[in-house]
Amino acid sequence: MAQLSNDCFVCQQEVIRLVDALGLITERISSVTDSVIIPIEASDGRILAVDVLAPVDLPPFDNSAVDGYAVRYADLNASGESYMRIAARVTAGAQLNVDLPPGSAVRIFTGAPTPAQFDTVFMQEDATEDGENVRLPKGLRCGANRRLAGEDLKRGSIALRAGRRLSPSDIALLAALGRTTVVVRHQLRVALFSTGNEVIPPGRPLEVSKIYDANRFMLRALLERANCMVTDLGILPDSEAAVRRAIVAAADTHDLLVSSGGVSAGDEDHVRAAVASVGSLVFWRVSIKPGRPVAMGVAGGTPFIGLPGNPVAVFVTFALLARPLIARLAGEEYQPPYPVTVVSGFSYEKKAGRREYVRVRLFSRDGAVEAQKHPSDGAGVITSLTQTDGLLELPEHATRIEPGDPVGFLSYAELL
Q1: 256-260 and 302-307: which strand pairing?
Q2: pLDDT tens string 14-71
Q3: Do 326 and 194 lie in a common domain?
Q4: Coiled coil located at which positions (predicted)?
Q5: In whole angstroms, how large is the CA radius of gyration of the chain?
Q6: If 0-12 CB within 10 Å is exposed, 13-18 middle and 19+ buried, where does residue 265 land?
Q7: Are residues 132 and 203 in the same domain?
Q8: Could you tell me the residue range of the domain that residue 402 belongs to?
Q9: Cα 89 to the chain's mean position, in Å?
Q10: Coil vs helix vs strand at 19
Q11: Per DSSP, which regions of 275-367 are E strands?
Q12: Exposed/middle/buried for 6, CB within 10 Å: 0-12, 13-18, 19+?
């Protein structure tokens, strides 16, 4: 559980740059979770708590990479094809523990151990069997088509480093090393709530002046995708006292508090005041679009992040700020995705000094990957997320882009 000092952050700026906000997270937040041993089949997405060392060589023995014929390279005819007697046959899972005479070939199959001193393997489609003999072409290099013991990993080397978010390929590596369990970080416990008198849960009749709560459901999915255990506190009214009570109650048993709505400057935006009354507010505006009103602080010793009320802004600020914060708390070695260069297919103007994220779809045009902007810029237009592939990141210094300009693209998959 997170237990931070309420003044663990020092930030005097009312509006800060995204890079400065991320710097505060990196400098002031550390992992708050303990570790647990779990089966490898349950470890997808979990954060590795300790380095994994290879207990064996991988592969554990020299073996053939193809179906074919193993030979001693020194026995080959250097000036032409070689004609050798097939002295033995070895399949995957079998062993060949006999001495073979010089000039012999061994019929071998993929994954089978190569006999001692048989250092080169011809692919079967390049060879021609002739009764008990085989004809082999010239020109193959020494060691071809052979996988050496330990060429993937040497025994005792680091296979996976602590802080890694485990993937299916990592699980394959653990299994290949003979591991059945792995030490991972405990999942973060996150308390989640929405705010707003106008917000109601799906399933109820939609009254005049009410909207369904999309943010909480999106955030729950995003948090669970980030391997968090979520406690859903529901929808809180526009009341400083109600928000404060919920925060105080949740802070003692959770590692992170996440909200949406109520962090702007309106008369009915009470989240910032509630957080400040039980802890400290670090910042509440970041110079990005969409998502300027996003708050971060500490409440009752627990980190808090308050996201905007519009769904697109929620998505963007979660990806840019909440996701790195979660990684830091969870002990994950996290690197934000690097924008991939594509070509703009539209004109766009923006203010200097603000980083903007434009929702786009990608198309292939004249051999290049072109980004086309969604027709709506509104931060409340959810279809601008469902009908696009990712975000163009326009830096603070940019004021205009034109068709054909190189731009940085961040895919939704990479962001999350």
Answers
A1: parallel
A2: 689 999 999 998 888 888 879 999 999 999 999 999 999 999 999 999 999 999 999 9
A3: yes
A4: none
A5: 30
A6: exposed
A7: no
A8: 340-415
A9: 45
A10: helix
A11: 279-283, 285-286, 288-289, 295-299, 302-307, 340-344, 348-349, 355-365
A12: middle
